[in-house]
Each structure stands twice: as C-alpha cells, then as structure tokens.
Design goal:
alpha+beta, 5-stranded mixed β-sheet
C-alpha cells in the first residue's frame, strides 16, 4: 500500500537507486475442492521459500506477496545504475527460472517491467510487468516476458517456435519427435537467428528449450539427474559453446539420450511388455494398433508381435479383442446402453464386426448374451 511505499523511500538503501519489478505468476489448474487449494498453497509456499533462499545470496533483491492475488509473487530488484540493475535482474531471473524447471509440481510465467529511478514508481512497474505477463494469454505460459519487448515481431516468432517445439515433443511417435525437434532447434540456433540477440536472450532460449526437454523426460519417466546438472539448467554451460552448432549438438544429444532411455534401451523385454499391457488395459477404447505401438516404442512390428506372443501367450490383436469383449460383457450385463453404443465405447467403429467377433469369442450374439444374463 502507499504507506509501505513511503516507508521504503525513507530507507537509505533505497535512495538514489534504480528499480525494476518481475511478477511471478504460478500456473494453476482449476481448483475444484479444498484438497486442490491445499496442494496449490503448499506448492506456492515451497516456491516462495526457494525464491527467498536464493534472494538471500543476492544483493538488491526483495521478494514479497501480492496480497490481492495468491497466484502472484513480486520480485523487486534495485541497483546503483541502469547497467547494474539489468545485470542483477537478468542473472536473478535466469537462475530463478532454471531452479524451477525441474520441479514438475510448479510451473511459472514471469513478466518483467521497465526500469524506474524511484521506488514510488511501484505502480508503474506493476502495470508494465502485468502487461508483459498478459502475453501468456496469446503465446502460452512457462516463459519470461519483457515489457519493452512484447511487441517485437521477432520475439513473437521465437515464442511460436518454442510452442512448436512443445507440440513436437508431445507426440507419441519418437522418430517424428527427434526429426521434428532437430528442425526447430536448428532454426532457433541458426547463425542468422542468433546474430541479433544478446547473450542473455540466447541463455533464455537455451533455458526454455531445456524446460521443454525436462517435461518430455518426465512424460516418458526418464530420470534426468545424470544428464541435467545445475550448469545446464541455469544456462551457464553455454559459456563453453563457441559456435551455434554446439548448441544444436548438445540439445539433440540430450534429447536422443532421453528417447533411447525411454524406449527399449536398458529395459528387459518382460518389463516392456508388461508396461505395454498396462497401456492397452487403460486405453483399449482408443484406436490402438500394432503399428501405433511399434512406432511409439521404437521397435519393429514383426519383432514386437513375436515378443508379445512369447510373454503373454497370445498375439497382440487377440489380447486387445479379449479386453474389449470382456468390457462389453460388463456393459451388456449391467447397463441399458444400446449395443451399438457399447461397441463404439469399447473401441469398435463397426457394429457388424463387433457382433461377429463377439459371437466368435463367446458363442452367442450380444443380444443373446444380454437376454440370457437377465433371466
């Protein structure tokens, strides 16, 4: 409030200083119940403590709450000159973003203001930082947005490339993931693209790509401790890169290692087949095919078929049909759902095929089964 701002102005350490502000927005899913709110508060408090712990190691950094919005935390940074405040802000925000990258429970978006020469400009800083933060509605979260740069088309182009990378990494076909990611990363780290960017902007690009790769690794349940060190998360490792190709080679090697560890590499066949069986059991109503499974796990259809039959005792299609027919029997027995809707709900697009398969596997038609069970 205004009283607090006046009190800040009276402090010697805040006189003749330059200031900037970052608003840290904590991304949240919909909060429907008390448990959801409790989880959010716990994650928020944990994030604030991380920020406070890190701020204690830095001069000119103040962390405080937004009392009107629990999803926001304020970072107020000060320095003796504009050059100093730029360096303090850049280093702190870069490291803060890096510290949060590996935490799958917390996702943040940061909006940073311009620099002012008086702490009484708090309202203006907040307005600028919030304006920068609003860019997440257009271009997505998990980024740092800068007030003075939000209207530049080249920054929007960068954000679009990063969003394309996120979509690419969300695919199930790992072959397409690798080839698609390579094309996007090569665009981002092309010589022409980097020529107009500062060292800090390059660090942020690198960090945001690392962020997407970490999320990809979590999706595929690959432990990153051996691969992602602090110097990688913080972006410090890029000081050892002399050419744009070194960025590309490093990131693609990291991604390739995750893909290899997330597929057959290092996994015994029995564990792999059990994992795939669980996927079929959970997703039998979807359009699961032999080709889909083979592409997803990077294994030939022929080899996978032989492996599956050896471990399960029946081939892939028979197992899938068995799961679907057993589920349809439960629905026929315990609901009034029409047979055509049941067929579709368990994964069969064509009711005639469902009838034929059901009779072949049970000896009766779906209608005969329903009538028999209700006698």
């Amino acid at each position: 409030d205004n009283m607090n701002i006046r009190e800040f102005k009276e402090l010697e350490e805040f006189k003749q200083k330059f200031f900037t502000m970052a608003v840290v927005h904590i991304e949240t899913s919909k909060i429907d119940c008390y448990e959801d709110y409790t989880d959010f508060r716990r994650n928020r408090d944990r994030l604030k403590q991380k920020m406070l712990n890190y701020a204690m190691k830095e001069n000119g950094v103040l962390i405080c709450d937004n009392l009107k919005d629990s999803t926001e935390l304020f970072v107020i940074l000060n320095g003796n000159s504009k050059a100093a405040i730029h360096e303090i802000a850049d280093n702190f925000l870069l490291r803060l973003y890096g510290l949060i990258v590996k935490d799958e429970a917390i996702s943040i978006t940061i909006g940073k203001s311009d620099i002012v020469d008086d702490i009484s400009g708090f309202s203006l800083m907040y307005k600028h930082a919030s304006s920068a933060l609003d860019q997440r509605y257009k271009y997505g979260g998990n980024h740092i947005y800068f007030y003075s740069k939000t209207e530049k088309t080249e920054d929007i182009g960068t954000i679009q490339l990063l969003r394309s990378l996120a979509v690419c990494l969300d695919q199930d076909d790992l072959t397409k993931v690798k080839s698609g990611a390579k094309q996007i990363i090569e665009k981002i780290f092309s010589s022409d693209y980097l020529a107009s960017r500062s060292k800090y902007e390059i660090q942020m690009l690198f960090n945001q790509i690392i962020n997407e790769i970490v999320k990809f690794s979590l999706k595929h349940e690959v432990e990153l401790n051996e691969h992602i060190k602090f110097e990688v998360i913080s972006g410090e490792i890029i000081s050892s890169f002399n050419r744009n190709k070194e960025f590309i080679e490093f990131l693609m090697k990291l991604l390739s290692d995750i893909i290899d560890r997330g597929s057959l590499s290092g996994i015994d066949t029995r564990t792999l087949i059990q994992f795939i069986k669980r996927e079929i059991d959970r997703n039998f109503s979807r359009d699961i095919t032999l080709d889909y499974i083979s592409r997803k796990y990077g294994i030939s259809s022929k080899y996978f078929s032989a492996l599956f039959k050896k471990e399960v005792g029946m081939n892939f299609i028979d197992y899938l049909n068995q799961i679907r027919i057993e589920e349809s029997k439960i629905l026929l027995d315990g609901s009034e759902i029409s047979i055509s809707d049941i067929a579709e709900s368990v994964g069969y697009k064509y009711i005639h095929y469902f009838y034929k398969l059901f009779k072949r596997m049970t000896g009766v038609t779906p209608m005969e089964y329903r009538n028999y069970r209700r006698k």
